[in-house]
Amino acid sequence: MEGWIFDIQRFSLQDGPGIRTTVFLKGCPLRCQWCHNPESISIHPLLGHIETKCVYCGACQLICPSQAIVVVKEEKQWTINRERCNVCGACVTACFTGAMVISGKKVTVEEVMSEVLKDVTYYQQSGGGITLSGGEPMMQFDFTRDLLAASREKGIHTAIETSGAAPRRHFEAILPLTDLFLFDYKATGDQLHHQLTGVHQQVIMDNFNFLYHQGALIEVRCPMVPGINDTAEHLHAIAAMERNYPHLSQVRILPYHNTGNSKYERYGLHNPLPHLSTTTEEKKKEWESFFHREGCTKVLIE
Ligand code: SF4
Ligand code: SF4
Predict the structure, then answer these.
(1) Alpha helices (H) along 106-189
(2) Ligand 2 atom 1, closest CA
(3) Could you tell me the strand order of the sheet in which 180-184 lies?
(4) What is the 8-class DSSP label of residue 18?
(5) Is the CB of residue 45 less than 8 Å from the CB of residue 102?
(6) HEC string of 60-100?
(7) What is the rounded average pLDDT of the residues 87-95?
(8) What kind of architecture, by CATH, is found in domain 2-43+105-301?
(9) What is the C-alpha separation between 136 and 190, in angstroms, rounded?
(10) From ligand 1's centre to the CA of 125, what distance in Å?
């Protein structure tokens, strides 16, 4: 079984308990306006150009068999016609500064597992394991299921970070293979949810309720974007989740940071919210006070 990934991060401490290896899968059905991994949205590999590393030598232009790149050294200008580019990778090999990159690599389950198995001792000592993230791992369902099954076979703790936007039967299939669901809750109200993410909330909440009532261990994850989704209604709904779903392991607020902005330029993608600022400490304290007043004990602001 093969699948597309765009990163494997060892020694990850933020994607579930203990020391973990996080595997980032490509492909996502959502279009969250604040996405900080926009290169993950397409399931196909993407060519990127890191401007700060480019010395405008023109080697990429010379090697490109599709004449997709034009470099004007005198004006420090690098441009690409992406319609011509077939992501052959020749320019990546030719670029000696590392300015050309490709996001997306086809790998087998065995190849991923050989990376994951390197840190088994750390998982055992820390209570860690593997986390599948993305993108939306459920977009490559067969690959995701096989990775979870292979990890389970080796006795490795399994977690999956999901938007919840996937067919119910897929969640049914991975439920017995998954120790922890890191389940996103992105906005309150179907209209706003659709406006901000491009998908309706109902199917997501139906999947959430299904997993919860089947006894799945769930940590709710709320990306919080000041001025975009941090409405009073949303804050109250998050507080209510803790009351209505007492067996949640945690409700984690993920304050927006704008470190993903440069990726939009790098991969030639449209950034829907280019002027958003990283969440201030003051704003985080405001949210913290709100959840404290609401008597929440499981809400954690990162
Ligand atoms: S080969 Fe690399 S450094 Fe040279 S122009 Fe192309 S991207 Fe820039
Ligand atoms: S990936 Fe291949 S086709 Fe695309 S710009 Fe580079 S050399 Fe040209």
Answers:
(1) 109-116, 120-126, 141-153, 168-174
(2) 87
(3) 105-108, 2-12, 20-25, 129-133, 157-162, 180-184, 218-224, 250-255, 299-301
(4) S
(5) yes
(6) HHHHCCCCCEEEEHHHCEEEECCCCCCCCCHHHHHCCCCCE
(7) 97
(8) Alpha-Beta Barrel (3.20)
(9) 20
(10) 44
Both tokens assigned to 178:
């998954």
Range 46-103: architecture per CATH:
2-Layer Sandwich (3.30)
Q: Are 162 and 186 in contact (CB under 8 A)?
A: no
Locate the domains of the chain by residue range: 2-43+105-301, 46-103
Q: Is pLDDT at 259 greater than 90 in this prediction?
A: no
pLDDT tens-digit map of 23-51: 999 999 999 999 999 999 999 999 999 99
Distance CA 286, CA 185 (A): 20
Lining ligand 2 with CB less than 6 A are 47, 63-64, 66, 68-69, 80, 85-91
Structure confidence by residue, pLDDT tens digits, 201-237 = 999 999 999 999 999 999 999 999 999 999 999 999 9
Q: Tell me, in angstroms, the distance from the centre of ligand 2 to residue 90's CA.
A: 6
| Distance from C-alpha of 124 to C-alpha of 127, rounded to nearest angstrom | 6
Asked whether the predicted pLDDT for residue 173 surpasses 90, the reply is yes
- The encoded tokens of residue 284 equal 């985080």
ipTM confidence score: 0.98
Element (H, E) at 184: strand 180-184
Q: What six digits make up the tokens of 283?
A: 């704003």
pLDDT of residue 260: 85
